[in-house]
């Protein structure tokens, strides 16, 4: 393997000048990001108000990070595996080229604000954010097992006892987002649930999440991944936290069977009809336990008010069914999945 390269930061400063302060800081509302990191200031403050301390007190610097390889690509940027020069620790660096489109800029600002305020062991940690030469760089905790989507491609299906252990962690993450942070994730799917060699399962990617400011906890915007959308979302109606629970039901059923629960559709409108007009998918009772079938059903009720909350689902009988087995997700992820690029390995990395 060649010598790790420096991070490539293209220059498009002129295209986003309207979003910059005179000092070259990216600004959106109360959010400020520059080469030294991310901070927020109160909207009531005037002028150059003292910033809140950056999220990471170790003062990570972009200059201290060596790029190893690209590990993901999205509509707004790439994700690189990077290594800290002095500690050897790996991070995932999300590199986003700022776009002058208003909706893209607001999505990015939303993601940064949520990342700054979210600290939970069941949610991928944001270590720091930077803005340099037209690029927003978000330093994230590196999950060396990849996503559940990656893992499923290797194992084909995940047995119930392991799904039980995975579910517990995802539900604790959702409970934190819903009840403590008042956030609807709005894009929960296998590729946004990450795993590592320690058996940890964490929710990621808040690029289209929404902070709920009103007591009604409803949103009427339309973003996210169509396939995993609840009936009320895909039909364009207002939705709340329970839309994430529907998505969880689809995710768990897909992980259990190895196939997406709805047959492949040729168009969005066919999927819309299937989700809204047809009965919801269910777990085959001849292949799965009664408790698992009941759990999936509790998530996938057509009416949002009929679904169970994350807090209630944590007490569902399915999640205590295999307690006496002492399920070891760490062993399962490392032996059943692909070789992992862990924090403790040398320079071997699995091309994913």
Number of helices: 9
Question: Radius of gyration, rounded?
Answer: 21 Å
Q: Name the helix and strand elements from N-terminus to C-terminus, one letter apiece.
A: EEEEEEHEEHHEEEEHHHHHH
What is the name of the CATH architecture of the largest domain? Orthogonal Bundle
Reported by name, the CATH topology of the largest domain is: Transferase(Phosphotransferase), domain 1
Q: How many β-strands, per DSSP?
A: 12
Q: Give the strand line-up of the largest sheet.
A: 4-5-6-8-7
Low-confidence stretches: 8-17, 44-57, 208-217, 341-352
The proportion of strand residues reads 15-25%
**What's the CATH class label of the largest domain?**
Mainly Alpha
Structural class: alpha+beta
Main β-sheet, in a few words? 5 strands, antiparallel
Distance between the termini: 16 Å
Name of the CATH homologous superfamily of the largest domain: Transferase(Phosphotransferase) domain 1
Helix content: 25-40%
Protein name: mitogen-activated protein kinase kinase
InterPro entries: Kinase-like_dom_sf, Prot_kinase_dom, Protein_kinase_ATP_BS, Ser/Thr_kinase_AS
Pfam family, one: Pkinase
Keywords: ATP-binding, Kinase, Nucleotide-binding, Serine/threonine-protein kinase, Transferase
